[in-house]
Write a structure and sequence with these properties.
There is one protein chain. It is built from 25 helices and 24 strands. The chain is α+β, with helices and mostly antiparallel strands. It has five domains: 58 residues, Helix Hairpins (Orthogonal Bundle); 239 residues, DNA ligase/mRNA capping enzyme (D-amino Acid Aminotransferase, Chain A, domain 1, 2-Layer Sandwich), CATH 3.30.470; 77 residues, Beta Barrel (OB fold (Dihydrolipoamide Acetyltransferase, E2P)), CATH 2.40.50; 160 residues, 5' to 3' exonuclease, C-terminal subdomain (DNA polymerase, domain 1), CATH 1.10.150; 68 residues, Rossmann fold (3-Layer(aba) Sandwich). The protein has a five-stranded mixed sheet. A five-stranded antiparallel sheet has the order 16-15-14-17-18, with no helix packed on it. β17 and β18 form a beta hairpin. The chain is globular. It binds 2-(butylsulfanyl)adenosine (IVH). 2-(butylsulfanyl)adenosine binds next to β3, β8 and β13.
Amino acid sequence: MSQAGGTPAAETAARLRAEIEQHNVRYYVYDDPSISDADYDRLMRELQDLEAAHPELVTPESPTQRVGAAPVSAFGSVRHAVPMLSLGNAFDEEDVTAFDRRVTDTLRGAGLLGPAQQTEYFCELKLDGLAISLRYEDGRLVQAATRGDGQTGEDVTSNIRTIKAIPLQLTGPAPKVLEVRGEVLMNRADFEKLNAAQAKRDEKVFVNPRNAAAGSLRQLDPRITAKRPLRFFAYGWGEVQGLPGGQNGLFDEAPAGAAEASPLPEKFHGAMLDWLASLGLPVNVKHNLRATGAEGLMAFYAKVGALRASLPYDIDGVVYKVDSLPAQKLLGFVARAPRFALAHKFPAEEATTTLLDIEVQVGRTGAITPVARLKPVFVGGVTVTNATLHNEDEIRRKDVRIGDTVIVRRAGDVIPEVVSAVLDKRPADAREFVMPKECPVCGSAIERLEDETIARCTGGLFCAAQRKQTLWHAASRKALDIEGLGEKLVEQLVDSGRVKSLADLFSLRPLELVGLDRMGQKSADNLVEAIDKARAPALGRLLFALGIRHVGETTARDVARHFGSIEAIMDADEDALSSVPDVGPVVAGSIRRFFAEQHNRDVIDQLKAQGVQPVAEAVPQDTTLAGKTFVLTGTLPNWTREEASMRIQAAGGKVSGSVSKKTAYLVAGEDAGSKLTKAQELGVTVLDEDALKALLGES
Ligand code: IVH
């Protein structure tokens, strides 16, 4: 380090830098900050002030220097000392077993594996960002380059230096030269936020996080890159020279006597990554895993596939690497890819197809959603023919037209959506979407209030589409919980005119049900029985079942507890409704307007005539915790967070997601993160599971 060490100011600067970089890693790499943003800013300011007073202490590696250098007119080019290769791809199990067989046969033939031994692999996520090579000399970041054509890339050093997850200075004994290879990416949530901000400023929005990451990194003005939330994970290395302990290359033997002092890892890929992590580089330790044989690889693939949708960033597959470095060397390369590694791809989440038409769908509250009718396309593992376009403004913003070639995205079980149009391929006769003036189902006027993004059918329960979805919602588990009353059945009952309102459900007889699609005597009897059981719902469930806008399950229960009867709720004015804790003017207004409609009051009367008699909500008996707000964090030894929440609520307490001055208790388990720090800062009482049990009287 080129620091003027020794003086107290120099020592303070060094300490602050180390501390700040450590927080950067916790925050940007492991999503587990241990201090508040305010405290982080304070440390940063302290360092800035110190450097202002002692300019001779400023080094290029100081975190204060990450703000972004002056813009350039073009990127220079960088020749990679060791080429950046690509990977062979596998798309199914057969490809994977063939890869494992090839590798294992070669290693057995060379005597690196015994005849019955299987190959050990190191498995990683295939991050969907862009490949970067970082060059460290004597532990200092001196150059960063994109992959380019694999031989020569672009010099993006100034931009890379703004990424807080990337250390400017390695920690611990570093080799003379270390080229780190890895992926720069953007988390999905950060991407959404960035796009929202871009749209607001009328600037370019990005199609996906990968394009946003690439666009941000290839900015000629590093000050723009500095504002973009980029992340980085290391998964490999290029040139390595002058390892601590006197070794030159990875495969050289350490000089006698040096081995013990050397922190050089054993000759395994996984151990190398551990070593990179020990130097302060971000490594995806949470998901990397060792596996044995093709079976182990397939198990990793399945595990990551199940996890994919819940990851904060996009991946397009997994990567398998032979763990032993000598084995890697023996296997060597074919064309421009290593024989020792394989990318096993997931079904693509995005695909291109033709937008045939845009139709509208009517939701439960009359919300009109434009739906894209697509030329069938295989995406996210299924064939997709419809995708949502959300609303009219989104169609305009994305400038999507009928006849366009469009990019469709289906991630996990999320409803497929049209992401964007491919403008170069727009046909001359592409048509703009026009919102219909009338509901396609009931013919009522469609209206869009001035400050709303959503257009609505004004038909209310006169509209069969709204009626169907209202009934379906009313029958759902958290409402009246009528088992066996699914979408298809509701459709038939409404289309035949037999069921016009919620009350009509309660007059259904088995005889008239038998003969409907997929309805035998037995299921008809069961359904009528299930309907019968719903005649005495908890008041909150009934209120929720009515499908009043803005009234969710919890609000419905709170209102029910407060008023005690449906009549009292129907007659409450906005002030009375607003006196329920957590009910604001929007919810109060919505409930009042609902019951101001005579036809909605009629439904309540008809329900009563059918013998529907809501029962008062059980008010929690135990009021020890009444009104106290709890926040849960970390893993508790015995209870899941859901269990703990339920018990707290049963005792009259409330559970919230974030710590504030109003929090009474923080229940903290193992691996508690920033919530614990915040609670301690605010002086909130912290409980462990035992203390919570004691408070609940359960110990
Ligand atoms: S290893 C010699 N590991 O995939 C092999 N690549 O298709 C070098 N990628 O250009 C690559 N995650 O951008 C490797 N865990 C991972 C990866 C990964 C994403 C990207 C990388 C590379 C491309 C190859």
